[in-house]
Amino acid sequence: MATLAVAGGTPVRTKPFPKWPIFDEREVQALREVVESGRWWGRTPGSKVEQFEQAFARYQHAKHCIACTNGTTALYLALRAVGVKPGEEVIVPPYTFIASATSVLDVGAVPVFADIDPTTMTIDPQAAEAAITPRTTAIMAVHIAGRPADMDALKALAQKHGLALIEDAAQAHGASWRGRRVGAIGDAGGFSFQASKNINAGEGGAVLTDDDEIAEKVWSLHNCGRSRTGEWYAHFLVGGNHRMTEWQAAILLVQLQRADELHAKRQRNAAYLNSLLRELEIVEPLPDDERVTEHAYHLFIFRYFPERMGNVPKAKFLEALRAEGIPASPGYKPLYREPAFSKEALDWHPYARHCDYRKVRCPVTERVCDHEAIWLTQNILLGEPEDMEDIARAIRKVRDHYRELLA
Ligand SMILES: *Cc1c(COP(=O)(O)O)cnc(C)c1O
Question: Which of 104, 227, 277, 300 could make a disulfide contact with 111, Cβ separation 3.0–4.6 Å?
Answer without folding.
Answer: 104
